[in-house]
Amino acid sequence: MKDAHSMPLRQLAAEAVAREAGALARRRFLDASFNVRFKGPQDYLTEVDGETEALISARLGEAFPRDGFIGEETEGRPASGGGATWVVDPIDGTSNFARGVPHFCVSIACVAGGRIEVGVIYDPMRDELFSARRGGGSRLNGAPIRPSGAAALANSAIEVGWNVRTGAANYLDLLRRVTLWGAAPSRTGSGALGIAYVAAGRRDGFVEHHINAWDCLAAILLVHEAGGYVSDFLSGDGLTKGNPLIACAPGLKDALISAAAIEGIVL
Question: Is the pTM of this model over 0.90?
Fold first, then answer.
C-alpha cells in the first residue's frame, strides 16, 4: 500500500477478513471437534482461537505488510511512528463458544495516530456485520445504526462487563450501583458484542472496570460513529494494557458515569 492511512480500503479488507474468519469459527463451533483449556481462572482457550487469529493475521499481513498487528492470542507489535496497527480478537466470547452458546464474534480494529480509524465486528451465528470508519458512520449489514433514546437509567438495560483481573468485590459493587440507580443489568459473555449492541440501540450502555483493547476497540468506534458516548479508552497505556470503559446512549452519559463511579476512567 502506498498510503499507510488508506482507511476506506482497510475497512473493506477488515469486513472481508472478518467474514472469512467468522465462517471458519462457525464451522468449528458447529462440528464441536475442538479441545478446551484454560489460560487462567475463567479464561477459556480453544485451538480455534489460534486458527482464526492466524487466518486474520495472514490475510491482513498480505494486504498491508507494513502495518502492525496486536492479537489476543499472539505477541504482536504496534506499527512504528504512529502507523496503522490492527488490533484483533479472533473469537470474543470464547467461554460461550467453548460451552456451545452461539454468542461470540470476530473483532477487528485499525488504529493509527492514536485514534481508532476502522472497527469491524462479525457475528457468524447471526450473520451480522457491524462496521464503522472514522467520519463515516456505523452500519449493521449496510444499514445505518443509532444508539437508543434512553434518557434515564430507570428505563435502561446496561451490560456490566466482568473480568477476574479486578476481582469479584469490584464487580459486585459495580453491579450493585448500576442496579440501585434503576437499570436492568446483564452480562452476555462477549464485551465486543455488548458494546456493539449499544451502538445499535439493543443495549443502552456498557460498563467494565477493565477491558483489553482487542475486546473493545472495534466496538468503541461503532458507538462513537453511531452518535453514542464512550470514554477515552486509548488514554495512557490503553492500547497495550487496557483500561476501564463506559459506553452508552448519549442521554445516559451523566447518569451512567455517576452510577458506575469507576476510579481512574478518563471521560
Answer: yes
